[in-house]
Amino acid sequence: MPKRNHRPAPQPSRPAFSAERPRALAALRLSQLTNVTTSPERQRGTVRLCAEQLGFTLIAETADLGVSARNTSPFERPSLSTWLQQPDAYEAIVWSHVDRAVRSVVHMTELIAWGQRHARTLVFGNPDGDSPLVLSPQTDSSSVQRCMDLAQVAEQEARTLSSRLTSSHEALRMIGRYGGGLVPFGYQKSPHPSGSGWCLAPDPGSAAIVRAIVDDVRSGLSLIAIARKLNDTGVPVPRGRHAQLQGRPMGGRRHGRDFERFRWTSGTLSKVLRSPSLMGHRVHQGRTVRDPDGTPVLIGLPLLTQAEFDSLQELLQSRSTGSHRRIRATSLLTAIAHCSGCGGRMYFAARKGCPYGDYVCRATARGDVCPAPAAMRSDWLESYAATRFREVTASDSPVSRQLLLDSGARVIVAKGCRGGGPARLTGPDTSRLSFAISDGTQPNR
User: Which of 218, 263, 319, 370 could pair covalently with 341 via S-S, beta carbons 3.0-4.6 A apart?
Assistant: First the structure.
């Protein structure tokens, strides 16, 4: 996976500039911070030279370091996207080369369309020529075609590099060497005994935690209870421990939200405990890599023996009841129904032997504790949401999940009370429910 930039995106500012010279934004990007051949300083030098040649005043710099252009468009990058939303702050954007801006023909098309829509100039340095490539709002078709050709070349280069890396990692997997990426929990990178490359060795800190987790599972603790215990004691998740060993911040961005550090969940624990890497196996896509004779390829000393690992899998499997098995591919109110107690999403859970299920708060699965977890029968809640949507929008159209999502619909469910007698079987307690649409409509009881 490409490394992500965990630093918060800088907010656009409006530095002083000369009114006689067009304002320009310097745009830097780097897939890997160790890539010295296209270092930030080298990019800055090229951008400054382009600005001087064209008579621009550089007012600010946007730097997305550790961000892949192949996987993220300019409009998705933490730093640059913030500036693209405020085009009035400058007249031009300058990159040191086309591949610093995009590595995709589609992304180049989107960027050119943005420039023409906002009447902004796009500038790309040309390492092989004396003058930069300039796309002004009045540019001719030949310049646009030149940009598209360069974007196609950059895209092909990215594919070729990806293919070479894939082949390299396959070779490393077969000889038991560490080729990069997330280190399995319980291990750390270590020099290979041959003196060439790297392998994995038990990490004293997290290896002891793995043994403690296995002991807790054997003692009867649920994965949810173990996750809560790990979160309470501040144990970093595998991703956080990997960042910690590399001297980087343990947090990052997930599902559109920024976290100082990530939390353990039952799902994270299950992945750790079910991975053959605990036996020192090289793992690819969740499975043990084997040599031509079928023997597991070892990449480090085992934390668990084969017998211990097999016993652990049997124990985990015996506890997997499937009580939350989904019976529909996508439930109507997924990402729309939220728990009032914690604000988190509610998810559909099947009821054995019933044609309906329940929407329930899943805070525990996220590693959180909800002070008032809510739940409600799925057919009642879906009927309420569809009825309220038609009332608010004055529409008789069939209500689909996509329609609710597009309109910004949101249903809030509060925790119910015990008891209530036969009246509870007649339908939902609407006093626990509220419905709103993001166009400014206030919640309706």
Answer: 370
Cα dist from 193 to 65, 196, 234, 291, whole Å: 33, 8, 34, 19
Q: How far apart are the first and last CA of the chain?
A: 45
Distance CA 47, CA 56 (A): 10
| AA letter at 210 | V
Nearest to 234 by CA among 273, 205, 257: 205
Q: Which residue has the tokens 């997930």?
A: 254
Q: In what order do the strands lie in the sheet with 433-437?
A: 337-339, 409-413, 433-437
Token pair 């004779």 is at which residue?
A: 293
Residues 6 or more apart whose Cβ sits within 8 Å of residue 250 = 236, 239, 240, 241, 243, 244, 260, 261, 262
Q: How many CA atoms lie within 13 A of 114 on its CB side?
A: 20
Helix (H) or strand (E) holding 144: helix 141-175
Alpha-carbon radius of gyration of the chain: 27
Instruction: Find where tokens 């949810």 sit.
Output: 224
**With contact defined as beta carbons under 8 Å apart, do 268 and 234 qualify?**
no
- 31-90 confidence digits (pLDDT tens): 765 434 447 888 888 899 999 999 999 999 998 887 887 778 899 888 899 999 999 999
Spatial distance between the Cα atoms of 98 and 73, rounded to a whole number of angstroms? 13
Q: How far is CA 138 from CA 24, 102, 119, 121, in A?
A: 17, 22, 9, 9
